[in-house]
Design brief:
By secondary structure, this protein is an alpha/beta fold. The chain has 2 domains: about 1-120, 3-Layer(aba) Sandwich (Rossmann fold); about 125-215, Winged helix-like DNA-binding domain superfamily/Winged helix DNA-binding domain (Arc Repressor Mutant, subunit A). It has helices at about 10-20, 35-40, 60-70, 85-90, 105-120, 150-165, 170-180, 190-200, and strands at about 1-5, 25-30, 45-50, 75-80, 95-100, 125-130, 130-135, 140-145, 145-150, 170, 205-210, 215. The strands form 3 sheets. It has a 5-stranded parallel β-sheet with strand order 2-1-3-4-5. It binds calcium ion. Calcium ion (CA) binds near residues 9, 53 and 54.
Length: about 220
Amino acid sequence: MRVLIVEDETRLARSLARGLTAEGFAVDVVHTGTDGLHRASEGSYDLIILDIMLPGMNGYRVCAALRAAGIETPILMLTAKDGEYDEAEGLDTGADDYLTKPFSYVVLVARVRALLRRRGSGAAPELRVGDLVVDRTARRVSRAGAEVGLTAKEFAVLEHLAVRAGEIVSKAEILEHSWDFAYDGDPNIVEVYVSALRRKLGPGLIVTVRGAGYRLVAAHG
Ligand code: CA
């Protein structure tokens, strides 16, 4: 899952990015409205966290411009406590939810997860592929009823394969969805995570399609 943070308070942006990265999200941060609009128009994000008071272009205008361009990525607006702007205006411009500063990190993560669950077809909270169960809400994985402990990044890779179960998913697609924009290292890093997943989950689930990528198939191990 990829998240774009558009926030000009660098300390807040940095701590949000750190927290969401630890939760297994791939996070990009920009500090101006214009960069936010640009990046959100180009990148394939699953969610955008958008501050309202931003240099360059305010959050309302960024949000309205994205919606006018047909980009339906869920947007969580961050509003200032002084109520300078009201929430109704944020929702009118196409934001999906809003959060008033200062907010607790726990509340932010809960809102982020709720918005991701609400999204159209990818919204299933639990993915079942054969005897594999990926619980996207609790971030837990089990196979044949036995829980399997995964790192945040392993979970992100498996989740993406499970959302697209039965389809061939290329390394580049896995990278794009599970790593942030700044990662421009070797795409073969994906192989490392796939081997770890195979070791932990057991045989038969993740099939290599030579030269094309991977496919998650229903298997009973
Ligand atoms: Ca601001």
